[in-house]
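Hello,

Our lab assistant flagged a job as stuck in the queue for most of the afternoon. It eventually completed. Since we weren't sure the result was trustworthy after the delay, we are filing this so someone can double-check. Below is the sequence as submitted and the structure that was eventually returned. Let us know if re-running is recommended.
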Amino acid sequence: MIVLAVPDALAPVTAVSDPLAWVVVVAFVLASALTWAERRTAARYLASGTWGLFGVFWLTVFPTFWFEMRSLIEGTLSLVAVPACIYTGYLLYDGRESLLTLSHAVGVMGLIYLPAETIPLVRRFLVETVASQSYAVITALGYSPELVPVDKDVAVQGYMSMFVFTDATGHEYTTHIVTACTGIGSMAIFAGLVAAVRAPLRRKAKALGLAVAVIWVLNIARNVFIAIAFGNQWFQQDPLVYVATEFAGYQDPNLTSFFIADRVISQSLSVVALVGITWLVVRELPELLDVIEEALFVVTGTEYDLADALGQPVRADGGEK
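-- returned structure --
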């Protein structure tokens, strides 16, 4: 991953994102506990306020996505999430208790993702495991970069997760694995969704296992593609260099291949992959359609019956299909 600088004026905003994330997750978990204790009114009020804080969280991470990572997709989505979260909180406060299930899902997502992001021991194990597997695939394809400790990026400083490609002139092109490159975020999303619905444990475990396996494989393929494409400068054509330097803000034209491989191709395909994985998981666990319908209502303001549209029977009691 290539890291650029967040403007100094925005640094205090980004600095509070991790503590705020923990506050949001703990509050969602407490709201879930209140729901299970049949104190649904209190749960609804707590969750509605937490969704507002969740919107603030997405605002604090926007500068990182937009200025540091130069990610149009993630930057735009983080901004869209701000009003979406606030509106979700309003709907809950106004009495739409069905959104408590979505709130529970977000709490579980956070409990899985935040330790990987904020606890060094967990982060290092995950990052270096993904790096070693990605390196094995790169070498199996006939390429021979070095795998060395990261000498930049404070979060993963010293981790054995940097790939170094050297061209015929001796110039080095390096990428390194960080938490965002491990797929843990996508895995946490599906774990939260699966945990939030009522269904037999066997089908829930099967659906989650399917999602995690597919995400892991696709994520390794993504890391391999980015490392090789940048290391071999696959996308250094003049029109693409112009887009990277004039529109994306990269000052070094040699970063064009990284920008196209990661920020454009990989991130675009990631959205498509998430939709495809969701379809596979829903086939195993159609109860997830209820949660997806709630998310669609927040975004569109329209009620949907996806089970009827897709011909998927969903047992309201969580029993077998």
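-- support follow-up --
The delay was a queue issue, not a problem with the job. The result is valid. Residues 1-6, 315-321 have pLDDT under 50 and may be disordered. The longest helix spans residues 201-231.
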